[in-house]
Amino acid sequence: MYEKKHFWLVGILTGFFSGLLVFLFQLILFHLSLSSFSIIYGLLYLIPFIAMTYASMRLRDRYGSNMLLFGQSFKLSLVTGFLSALVMSLMIYYVYTYLFIPALQQRAAQLNSELLSTDPGMSFDKMKERKQLIIKLLSPISLAIYYFVVNTVLLPFYAFIIAIFAHRRRRDITDI
Length: 176
What we know:
Blueprint: H1 4-32, H2 43-63, H3 70-98, H4 101-118, H5 124-137, H6 140-166
């Protein structure tokens, strides 16, 4: 079996680099995607799933003698996913607060113009209200909280699925 330091080493390293990878992917999509909604944004929620799966397989194959229990895999997946969500959210907050402030303002203006084009007969007060709502939704803190909450809500489901399939024992022909 593995030692506790291997559990934490795999969980922390995989979670940290997964969070950075998800953040970089989000940053690329945010700046290259011209549409306000793209199905490619779904990959932001699949990358942590892949990283959690990798962490469980890594612990099982490298440190666990090809054996990992359901609970161990579940805990490792939760640690990895939580750290990934935390790193991604902190990076989003930091970058959009200090480095890319005009990018959020430009995206807010783009979304506002899309709303105006869908309903050109909108009153001035309603237009102003929607503009303020878009600005609030695209603030760095709300983006960071949104991504953290959504990833955290998905974690138990991902961890449960991964833990079911990560459980494997080494089987030799002599065991028959």
